[in-house]
């Protein structure tokens, strides 16, 4: 899983310049549909088995570009499942769980990210990792 | 997409949770917000309305979308209420099997 994330980070770093260049392209189709497929060489939607790995990777992804990253929570009470996804539209990190003990961790992480987003640029708040 | 005040958003979110209690999924999205209301056109100037760096956008949907904007002034109060809401409503998950087993084994010893 760590290797997968490193591979994706390298792609993201390399791909950032291509994205900027293609962003000027007139064809919206080319920009929005083709770009994800250009980077489909490695696993682009790694599902994490441990919370520690996921939270570290997600924090890194957010800090790389705070404006692009978003966090999505999906809760299904009928299935008793909670899924948290952090993505910047190029890389997508997912953590699924059906354990009540993970709810607190996920909710805490969600709040920490909220605080990070709302903090002013001059003051960088260090994320507390569990 | 209905844009609400923070408190109204929390009430509506509780209602959304209750609505999809028996079936359906609830999506909550959190994103950094820079105050943009209009899309940035390529040829026009980059910054139209005043850009603000210290806000975040929170959306919830289960078909019906609601959203709210949280700024740094409101974040403390809102976050406490929001955390409590999430923790109390997301209780449909299984209690830790591993923890129970380790507790039982510790008690046995």
List key phrases describing it:
heterodimer, A: alpha+beta, Signal recognition particle alu RNA binding heterodimer, srp9/1, 3-stranded antiparallel β-sheet, 3 strands, B: 109 residues, elongated, RNA-binding (chain B), ribonucleoprotein (chain B)
Entry summary:
The complex is a heterodimer of chains A (130) and B (109). Chain A has helices spanning 2-23, 28-38, 51-64, 100-118; strands at 70-76, 81-87, 92-97.
Largest interface: A-B, 36 and 40 residues
Strand content of chain B: 15-25%
Q: Helical proportion of chain A? A: 40-55%
Radius of gyration of chain B: 20 Å
SS summary, helix count of chain B: 3
User: In order across it, which strands form the biggest sheet of chain B?
Assistant: 1-4-3-2
The CATH top-level class label of the domain at 1-36 and 51-88 in chain B: Alpha Beta
Low-confidence stretches of chain B: none
For the secondary structure, the number of strands of chain B is: 4
Mean pLDDT of chain A: 75
Explained architecture:
The complex is a heterodimer of chains A (130) and B (109). With 130 residues, chain A is of the alpha+beta class. Chain A has a domain at 46-119: 2-Layer Sandwich (Signal recognition particle alu RNA binding heterodimer, srp9/1), CATH 3.30.720.10. Helices cover 51% and strands 15% of the residues of chain A. Chain A contains four helices and three strands, in the order H-H-H-E-E-E-H. Chain A has helices at residues 2-23, 28-38, 51-64, 100-118, and strands spanning 70-76, 81-87, 92-97. A three-stranded antiparallel sheet of chain A has the order 1-2-3, covered by helices on one side. In chain A, a hairpin with a 4-residue loop joins strand 2 and strand 3 (92-97). The model of chain A is unreliable at 122-130 (pLDDT under 50). In chain B, helix 1 (6-19) runs parallel beside helix 2. Chain B has a domain at 1-36 and 51-88: 2-Layer Sandwich (Signal recognition particle alu RNA binding heterodimer, srp9/1), CATH 3.30.720. Chain B is an alpha+beta fold and 109 residues long. Chain B starts with a strand and ends with a helix. Chain B has a four-stranded mixed sheet, covered by helices on one side. In chain B, a hairpin with a 3-residue loop joins strand 3 and strand 4 (65-71). Chain B has helices spanning 6-19, 75-89, 97-108, and strands at residues 2-4, 26-33, 55-61, 65-71. Chain B has three helices and four strands. The chains are: A alpha+beta (130), B alpha+beta (109). The interface between A and B is large, with 36 and 40 residues. Strand 1 (70-76) of chain A pairs antiparallel with strand 2 (26-33) of chain B. Chain B: Keywords: Cytoplasm, Ribonucleoprotein, RNA-binding, Signal recognition particle. Chain B: It is found in: Cytoplasm. Chain B: It holds the Pfam family SRP14.
